[in-house]
Amino acid sequence: MGDVILKMTGIEKSFPGVHALSQAQLEVRAGEVMALVGENGAGKSTLMKVLTGIYPKDDGKIEFFGKEIELRSPKDAQDLGICIVHQELNLMQHLTVAENIFIGREPVIGPFVNQREQNRMTTELLESLNIDLNPKRVVKTLSVAKQQMVEIAKALSFNNTKLLIFDEPSAVLTDTEIDDLFRFINQLKADGLGIIYISHRMDELKRISDRITVMRDGQYVDTLVTANTDIDEVVRLMVGRVIYEEPRTHSMVAPDAPTVLEVEHLNSLDVKDVSFHLKKGEILGFAGLVGAGRTETMRLICGADPKDSGTIRVNGKEVRIKTPEDAVRNGIGYLSEDRKRYGLCIGRSITENTVLTDLGKVSKGLFVNDRKADRISQDYIDKIKTKTPSTRTLVRSLSGGNQQKIVISKWLFKNCDILIFDEPTRGIDVGAKSEIYHLMTELAKEGKSIIMISSELPELLRLSDRIMVMCEGKVTGELDIAEASQEGIMRFATDRNVGVSKNAG
Amino acid sequence: MLGKKINLQKLLAPVVLVILYVLFSIIGNGFFTTDTLKTILESSYYIGFMAFGVTFIIITGGIDLSLGTVMMCSALLGAYSFKVAGWPLALSLVLTVAVGVMFGLVNGVFVAKLKLPPFISTLGTMMMAQGVGSIITKVQSQTWPTSTDPLGGWFKKVFIRYNGMPVGAFWLAAFFIIAVLILHKSKFGRYVFAIGSNEEAARLSGINVEKWKIMVYALSGFFVGMAGIFYAAAYTTITPGTGNGQEMNGITGAVIGGVSMAGGSGSMVGTLIGVFIMSVLKNGLASCGLQAPWQTFFTGLVVVLAVLLDNYRTRAANRVRKS
Q1: Residue A45 has what pLDDT?
Q2: How many CB atoms within 10 Å of residue A136?
Q3: Could you report the predicted ipTM of this complex, rounded to two decimals?
Q4: CATH classification of A4-239 is 3.40.50.300, yes or no?
Q5: Which of A329, A356, A420 to mutate: most B Cβ within 10 Å?
Q6: How far is A350 from chain B (nearest CA, A)?
Q7: Fold for domain A257-331+416-505?
Q8: What tens digit of pLDDT does each residue of A119-139 get?
Q9: In Å, how far are A214, A462, B40, B79, B267 from B15, measured between CA atoms?
């Protein structure tokens, strides 16, 4: 391992009302991957924003290659060779790969951009990084993984990059894409770059990192050498408490539980002849690779997209679902993986979001009874233990886990009996995850029926009573939890030839 | 501490209004009189109604460029039905409002059902409304009754001034309260904010977004029709082919009042204050001997400053949230 290139010590940062960083520290050596972990709100992102010059620090010292540095703007950091690949990609979707990489630094002939030279430089850069991409491709036609490669290439095109920060790069990637990313990171490592890698996925840490720095509540907790550490130890340090880990061995559904939802021969562009059923009090997992058509199927059921054909029965009665309004009326609530885009009005308060699904319930005639709405939203905050200063707090200021709880409150308030969770713990830290798991189990016990799409196999195995597996728009397998295993699920998930439609069990 | 700060920010617009008023009272020539106050009020009526209407639309994330010509069209057709077709004045007033609502519905259907961008669809109706007014009146100017007219002489007394009393202000106040109740207290208002904040999330929550958006445009149309009545009461003669540019008065009022063009935030009080700021500025500058070009210039300046200030406020508010 190389010399220490970055040393941050005693970093302090406060925002009005929040002490975001208190005596935070971090050290990175040349040629190592330093993983930075912690729950949401632990201060990882704030620390990285201090390091990249987005926020000025209140106090503390940053040493880079032994020299103390002051960062006044992102440009300062970039000039020093500190670059970040953001979790949310910052590419201009309508421009080409080459245009994105060299934006603001285009090679020119007089007043004109030298397109040919720009493309040549891009090809050279991409080749040196072993990325197989056409510089003339328009970015929006690339997969998310490829777009991320473009981001990385852009970060490295500033010749002097010495420290590269990845902010949750794997959150949007499939397993094979993650393999590519890791191979790539290892290559950068070998070139002597220092790398900071932020992630919520514990299984990745072992594979990619050399050392792990744990933060909690804005403070430095410990730095561990990955090879001598087990993941449980890391998790324990992160949350400072024991995690709810109870793998499920058998279905908890009563054998005589009535069927609440039946879907038959559902078809659309991305969904091919999908049929399944859901019982009362059941958690039905949906497994599959990204693009298997799971989200698309659920969007048909909740009326978000129009279906070409197929029937849906709720409690034995056929229902017509053309809009989300129809679905909600039939007690079907959809909790999207992208909460900010599809689930919440993040600029509005917790109360407004909670009661939005059924304003009539808190209204007298035309007018909303705000006091009643606040009281109800407080009840849900207490019931599912949402962490927030008040009911009038804007949803935007909550952490991912707590935002997810607001979405859940919304549907509980509407009294939906069928809840469709699409990646319920995406972007949520470990501690909050177990709370969400617990909550989902409780809901099922109370008689709610749950469909859960998840790309995390351990999550599926821990929560589901039964698992449907999809591949390329088709249902390829159905497993009772007693017989399900990661290997079994993966076999069906990659089963591209079989179009087995399931037999109701 | 945080709450106090936000309250201070909310007070900013009214404070600016008071400062402007005091400033012009000191430097203006004959500004600090009841007459000027009445003039300020009276030049706010029709702009106020337009601004109330467009506030709903802007909060949903839309825009309405047809405010001005629709207002003229409704005033024009109202006068035509009264003078040329010989309708009773009360019925003509109903028609005036109905024309506004009708164009609002058309906008609503274009935007919500046919998924046209609000800018485009209201650009279209802006021209259509101007055309409709000219076609029906055969490009003849139309007049509303003056207070001495035997027929309908009550028109101005009811809507503008009665025995020196600015009765229009009561109308404006009454409809302001109605607008506040609708926007901030009713279910409809909640949906307006929800749609503006995140339309897709609102739709997936089971809200019939199309229906509510049509209603938003129709409601705005109602206010524009009301604006038509007050424009008529203030200016009596309506000329076909005019109205272009009036929409900017309404939109500017809302924007100065802090309604975000991105949708999802804004308040009716803000809009009302924005309208008064414009009016005080206009009359104040006139009292300093500065004429229309200067008034336009300064109003433009205020728009930019107001939005700058608003950006700064939002950024300050965002900085509070932990990252």
Answers
A1: 84
A2: 14
A3: 0.80
A4: yes
A5: A356
A6: 12
A7: Rossmann fold (3.40.50)
A8: 999 999 888 877 888 999 999
A9: 49, 59, 17, 40, 16
